[in-house]
Each structure stands twice: as C-alpha cells, then as structure tokens.
Specification:
Blueprint lengths: L2 E4 L3 E3 L3 H9 L11 E11 L5 E10 L5 H7 L4 E10 L4 E8 L6 E12 L2 E15 L6 H32 L17 H13 L38 H8 L4 H17 L7 H10 L4 H17 L5 H4 L4 H6 L2 E6 L5 E5 L6 H8 L1 H26 L6 E6 L10 H17 L4 E9 L3 H8 L5 H4 L2 E5 L44 H12 L5 E6 L4 E7 L5 E10 L2 E8 L14 E5 L2 E5 L12 E2 L4 E3 L4 E7 L4 E9 L13 H9 L4 E11 L35 E4 L1
Parallel strand pairs: 10-11, 11-12, 12-13
Antiparallel strand pairs: 1-8, 2-8, 3-4, 4-5, 5-6, 6-7, 7-8, 9-10, 14-24, 15-23, 16-22, 16-24, 17-20, 17-21, 17-23, 18-19, 22-25
C-alpha cells in the first residue's frame, strides 16, 4: 500500500531571499539532522542572468534502523538524489527527491516548494508532499514502513526549527536582509552596489509582534488583526499550519496530512457542501485517522443530513411546548476547559410521558437540535477562549431514577437516539459527568453501554450518592460559581425541572405514527435503486425553450453513469407487466424505466449531455438550459468496468474497485427542479428557489458562473 503525506502551508515571516540564505546553510551537512551525514554536488546549472539555479545533490543518510536489518540489506548508508530548482525571478524553490538505494524495492518520492506568500510579499510559504511505496524488502516490509514513517515524521517536525536556527545564525552575523534578484541590465554600479550592501547590513528586519501569531488562524496573513476566516470549501484555499494550531489544535504531521487529504477529496467530490475543518477532524479522530473509514462514515452522514434537512433544524423547527415544559435539560455556562456545558436532569424526566405525548421521532429531532446547538457553541467558545474547542461536557443528574425509567419503549427510543448521535456527531462529547447514580443505574447501563463507542465510553465519570462533592469530583471540572443550585451550588440553573407529563397530553398510536411520518418525510430528496440492466429514469416536460433543468444528487452506493436525453414524444407510463418500460420497488428506493426497448437513440430520442461517470460517495450538482420544448429524460445507469484489451493486463485500481462492488445494485438520492430562464442565477449552487439541502456545516458554497445554452455540471 502506498503511504502518502501532504503538509499544511507553513509560513515564515521573513522574505524569500533571506529564507533561501538560511536554507543553503543546511548543506553539505546539517548537525541538526543527525541522520544527514553528507552530500555531494552531482550536477549544477546557472542561467546567464543568474535567475535560474539548478543543483543536484547525492545525499548520504544514516537511517536509524536495527543493525540486523542493515546487515540483511547489506548497507550501512542510504543514498538519495535531491534536485533543487531555484527561480529568483519568480521567487520560488522547488525541491524534488527520490531514493537511489533499493530503488527497485522501495520507491520514495518527495516534493517541496518555497514560494512568496500570496498576500504578503515579505513572507514565505512552504509546502511538502511525499509518497512511500514498499514493493518488497526481504520479508521486512512492515518493519521498513514503520521505520521510514517514524524517521520522516521526525524530520518534518524539525524542518521549521532548522530554518529558524539558521535565520538566527544569520542575524548574529549581521545579515538581516538579502536583496532581491534584478536583471543584469538593471544591476547597479559597483559603487552603488557596495553602498547598498552596507545599508542592507544595517537594516533590521521588521518582524510582526509574536503575539499576532496567536491570532493568525486562517485570516489573510497580511492582516492578522481582524480579518474574518476564509470560506471553507473553495478549491484553491489551503490549510495554514498556524490556523490548524489555533483552531484545530496540536496535530502530528501525519494527522495534519490525513486532514488535508480528506479535505481535498471532499473538495473534488462534494463541491458546495464541504464540512468545516473541525467536523472533518471529528470523523478522522473517531476512526483513528484512517482516511478510508472516515471518508465512508462522513459521506453517509452528509447524505443523512441532506436527506432530513438537519442543517436547517435550528432555523425551521420549533420544539413542541410539551418538550419546552417537561424536557429537563438545557445549556448552562461552560466547564473549566471552556467546553459548553449541557445539564440533563434525567431522574426528574418523565420519559414514558414524553414518548406517549410526542413519539420517538419528535424526541430524536429535539436531541438533534441540541447537538446542532452544541456545534454552534463550540465555534463561539473557540473564538472567546482563543483555543480550539470541538466538544462539550454533559452533566447528567440521576437523582429520582427508578424502574419507571426502564419502560421498554422509552429505552428503545434512547437506544435509537444514541445510535443516530454516535453515527453523525462523533467526538463531540468531551466528558460525561453522571451524578447521584442510584442502585437501578447498573441495569440501565447494561442496556445502553453496548451501543456506545469505546472512545466515548472512556469519557464517562460516574459518581454515586454525594461522591461528586469530594476530591476528584465536580469541582475538578466545573468552577464553583457555576455549579447548579440543585447540586448544592450557588448558580441558579434555568433548566426545566421536568415532572410528570399530564395524561391528557398523551396521543394515540395512530396520531403518533402520522406525526412521525410527517417529521421524517419533510425532504425534497427522493431515493432510487439502479440495477445492472435496469437504470432509473425520470421524465421532465418542458413547454418553453430556454427553461433550466437543475439537479442535485448523491451516489450513495456503487458507481453510476448520468445521462440526459430529449424526445419529441412522451414515453409510455411505466407498467409492471410491460416488457418495455417498467418499474421496480425495492427497500432502497424505486426504480423506474421510461425509455422503451424498441426506441432507438438518434431516431426516437437524442442525447443532450455527454455521459457523466459518478463514483460512490460523490455529490453532483448541475443544470441544463433547454434548447427545445418536449420531454427530457434524466437517467442514472449502472456503471460497468470497461473490458480490458486482450493484450493488456487489468489495472490494479480496476481490480480493487470491482472487488468492492458486492452486488449489481447502486443507490442514488436526487432532487430536480425546472425554473424559467429569467430566474436562473448561474448554477445549481446559487439557486434560492431550489431549497437544496447544501450542508450548513460549510461556511460557504462553491458556485459556477456558467449558465449558457448548453449545460453545466459541477462536481
């Protein structure tokens, strides 16, 4: 398996030329990198005007590996070829490196780039990417991979320290300024040049106040004082190392790389709906930074949020009065770490009464609104306290808990709520304080604990009786002045006291069923199944030419091909007993086929868009400006892997992809709309009338300005 690394953008608050002077001091050897023994210049080229300088070095490394492994490999040192291409005119340095030793067994490639900061020409940016592919190594492939990753990670951490070390060395020598390259024709005379050098040596480089470093975040670095964060989700934006530390916390180089790579994948496949970096990081942490697992769960969650309009729940859903009166929970200040604090008086809550009066779905939706509010409060506290806060603390008071709370439908509702929250809000619970646990608590814990993730379970602290008042208790986590009054504190807590729900508010099973159906069918999206040989098709009739057909769909399972056709005559309605057009109903959604098998492409209908292959997990938005009235057919078809030529072996990627397809079935979730050309504003992502469920976890959406006579597909 190929291991990849991608660094964030690291910023030096020094001009490019001074950074280059510091960088050159790393050669021929660097005492700060013990494994870097020596280097020899192999090739060197310098342009006549001096703007281009390319130097190729052979670097000798002493890898920290077991002596036995070195003996088996038959080497004491490992050699790398490094090519540095300096362009003084463009003020860039590109570094390419690859291993010379064992190049047939192990392939290591690295690319680094120093460049001028796009918004402050006196600052320098650095980016780094690398890949490791171990094909074979005497049966020690796993060991070699661990050693290589450990050594590389260690060097990444030292990279910025080394440059800053040589910058200090230059400053001690009185060199704080290096003039920029100028063309020979414009070069000053020798006397002027000598004078400039003397003046330059006397200049002190103006470095911004170090205190500003704390406030960098992702603001434009030329204006760190008060500029807002850049929109997350634009294709060209990149994560800054200072922003990561300020808003996301201390991450290892490999964790930073996982975040950047998953973020890039989402930008390529989910344009307009990129979650915020904090939310991406939560899914990575929940899966121990396994990118494939995090990507799978995040895509499922994004689809779920979109289908049920969860992003708009705080703005569009008002909790019933019964919940406001009898749900004994609410937000209450913050803990000592700055996390928002949620207080739940579960022992005082009539779970049976709430379920009988509201139903399971209303309770679930209320819990979702609490979690959405928690995400919002985490963002606010991050700004208030000046450090990353990505989770909240929950204080659960169990005084009053008894067998009444173990009512089977109530426990069933609780288990479902836990399941949904675990899947869609990972790593949002920082700590759970359970106070005054009675004797019946172990019974409840036995029922719910199997549904709670191991990482979450480790955050639970349980206190029986009044133990929370002693050492290691509540005061270790919450300031004395905000301990609620019902826990013998001095702070008035506005959380409802709960109590029994009047039976007059109970509703019948039929009423609750209808209400539950209404709650979770409030979605503009439809689901469909696509089978091999049975595409899903929908019909759109256009009366006025130049109308705009818009679409927004997610590929939930498998790979599909998306097509758009036009016909002057309407297809026959689907009939289950028809040999031509027909429909299939499946648990995952409907399957409808409209194009009759006797129809011929080019005679009965025509293709108006080029086929678009969409991979599993991708989200696609697009529009088509119609040229003619008539009937348009949108088709989602099963994508089969192309057959390989007889003389060619199948590609590894194709084989792996085919193995991952467990059945000849795909699933899509889609929404379409037709609007007049006068109302069309440019792209699907800019349509207000479509009410598209683009994720509000994103700070902004990406839109395209193409809206001409053919079509636009944004992916």
């Amino acid at each position: 398996m190929v291991q990849k690394y991608q660094s964030p953008v690291r910023v030096y608050k020094h001009p490019f030329e001074l950074i280059m002077a510091a960088y050159e001091r790393r050669f021929p050897t660097c005492p700060l990198i013990p494994m870097f023994v020596d280097s020899d210049t192999v090739n060197e080229f310098r342009s006549e005007d001096g703007a281009i300088h390319v130097i190729e070095r052979r670097c000798k490394l002493d890898i920290d590996a077991p002596r036995l492994l070195k003996k088996i490999a038959g080497v004491d040192y490992v050699y790398f070829i490094q090519k540095n291409s300096l362009n003084s005119r463009e003020r860039t340095l590109h570094i390419e490196a690859h291993n010379e030793t064992f190049s047939s067994r192990v392939v290591i490639r690295e690319h680094c780039c120093y460049s001028v900061h796009p918004e402050n020409e006196d600052w320098t940016c650095f980016e780094q990417s690398a890949s490791l592919d171990i094909k074979s190594f005497f049966g020690f492939e796993s060991t070699v991979e661990k050693i290589a990753m450990k050594q590389y990670t260690s060097n990444i951490k030292k990279g910025k320290e080394i440059i800053e070390y040589y910058l200090r060395q230059l400053e001690e020598e009185g060199i704080t300024f290096v003039p920029r390259w100028t063309p020979p024709a414009m070069a000053p005379s020798s006397e002027t040049s000598s004078s400039c050098k003397k003046q330059a040596a006397a200049l002190a480089l103006a470095v911004p106040d170090p205190a500003l470093r704390e406030g960098l975040g992702s603001e434009p670095l030329s204006n760190p004082g008060g500029a807002p964060e850049p929109a997350v989700g634009t294709p060209d934006d990149k994560l800054d190392a200072d922003y990561i530390k300020r808003y996301l916390g201390d991450l290892t180089p490999l964790q930073e790389s996982c975040l950047i790579r998953l973020r890039q994948w989402l930008q390529e496949t989910h344009k307009g709906k990129i979650p915020k970096d904090e939310h991406i990081l939560r899914f990575l942490r929940a899966r121990d930074f396994n990118i494939d697992k995090a990507r799978e769960t995040m895509c499922q969650s994004l689809t779920w949020r979109k289908q049920h309009q969860v992003d708009y729940i705080l703005d569009t859903w008002n909790p019933p009065q019964v919940l406001q009166d009898y749900y004994a929970g609410g937000w209450h200040h913050h803990d000592k770490d700055g996390r928002p604090l949620y207080v739940l008086r579960l022992g005082q809550m009539d779970t049976k009464g709430l379920v009988r009066a509201l139903g399971e779905e209303a309770l679930l939706r209320y819990v979702l609104s609490i979690n959405e509010e928690g995400l919002r409060r985490c963002e606010e506290n991050t700004k208030v306290f000046g450090r990353p806060i990505s989770s909240w603390t929950c204080l659960v008071d169990l005084e009053g808990l008894n067998m009444r709370h173990l009512w089977r439908p109530g426990v069933k509702a609780l288990l479902r709520i836990i399941e949904v929250v675990e899947a869609n809000y990972p790593e949002t619970l920082g700590r759970l304080l359970i106070l005054r646990a009675p004797r019946v608590f172990p019974v409840l814990w036995t029922l719910v604990s199997p549904f709670i993730d191991d990482n979450t379970r480790r955050k639970f602290l349980i206190y029986a009786g009044n133990d929370y008042q002693g050492p290691g208790g509540l005061l270790d986590y919450i300031d004395r002045e905000i301990i609620p009054d019902f826990l013998s504190g001095e702070c008035m807590c506005e959380v409802p006291e709960g109590g029994l729900v009047p039976k007059s508010l109970y509703r019948t099973a039929e009423e609750l069923e209808n209400e539950d159906l209404k709650l979770w069918t409030e979605t503009i999206y439809q689901s469909a199944s696509v089978f091999k040989g049975a595409p899903h098709e929908i019909l759109i009739q256009i009366v006025d030419a130049s109308s705009v057909i818009t679409w927004d769909f997610d590929v939930c399972k498998g790979d599909i091909v998306f097509n758009i056709y036009h016909s002057k005559r309407s297809p026959q309605p689907p009939k289950k007993d028809s040999l031509g057009a027909h429909s299939i109903t499946s648990p995952g959604g409907n399957n409808v086929q409209l194009i009759d098998r006797v129809w011929q492409l080019g005679r009965d209908y025509s293709m108006v868009e080029s086929p678009l292959i969409c991979k599993e997990g991708e989200s696609v938005q697009g529009s088509h400006v119609t040229r003619w009235p008539g009937f348009y057919i949108l088709q989602w078809k099963f994508h089969s892997m192309p057959a390989c030529a007889a003389t060619n072996l199948p590609r590894v990627d194709d084989v792996l992809a085919s193995l991952q397809v467990s059945s000849h079935k795909c699933k899509v979730m889609y929404y379409t709309e037709v609007i007049g050309s006068e109302d069309f504003r440019g792209s699907m992502t800019s349509l207000e009338s479509s009410h598209s469920g683009f994720s509000q976890l994103s700070a902004a959406t990406t839109s395209s300005s193409q809206s001409h006579s053919s079509s636009m597909i944004s992916r």
